[in-house]
Amino acid sequence: MECGGKVRTNNESLVFKPTAGKSNMQELFWSNVSKVGQGKNMFQQYKIRAGEAILANNTMFQHIVGKEIQLTLRANEITFLNKQIRPLFSGKVVQVTNGYITLDPVAVSLSELNQYTFQTPLHFPIDRISNFITEEHGNEK
Amino acid sequence: MKNKPILTSGTVRHKVIIDTLKRSTGQKVFLLIQPYPFVVFGSIVAVKHDFLLIDIQANRLSEVQKGTIHVKIEDIEAFYIEAAGPKIPTET
Description:
The structure holds 2 protein chains of 2 kinds.
Chain A: E1 2-3, E2 6-7, H1 25-30, E3 33-34, E4 37-38, H2 42-50, H3 59-62, E5 68-73, E6 78-80, E7 83-85, E8 88-96, E9 100-109, E10 115-117, E11 122-125, E12 129-134
Chain B: H1 9-23, E1 28-33, E2 39-48, E3 51-56, E4 67-72, E5 76-82
């Protein structure tokens, strides 16, 4: 990129921008072909759904809104009701923001058969989530 | 121009949670954390750097029943803020 005869190198700029491929992230972001809806670009759709713009890194969580999931936290174990239990939560995703996802209703598995259902929704910070399992089969069209 | 902060996804996620907690100062909050005391329930006093100050209230699930606790926000496994949603049960 040349401006005024001076070539900017990557060492000068703070953010390194790779120029690989024709369709960059911006084009991907502004295209109006997505499963969420037609006629509006992804940015507008996510804004309508979440009330704020969802980062490209967190769009994966946007696709699971309204679905039943079972999630595992990064903690080895949590202590709840004077028992050491595995951090397995199951519930329906009702809200996704850039920082956390909300499950309502949400239950924690105390043992294989026993579950404790919380009387309130719970927000889970995305950084503390290790993995999650969706109820539906993965290869949907 | 210099020292422009670069926002990675990790810092954004952290910032969103800090902002959410800051916005709900004075509200009642329920936390699940891995270290002792495992369950924290009380009202948010303030957010200082990356610590959350909570005035603990008596609760059936919690091991600590009173005092002011500083919780590191990174350690929060799950939380709920009682703003407009359902009330947190408080029976002891």
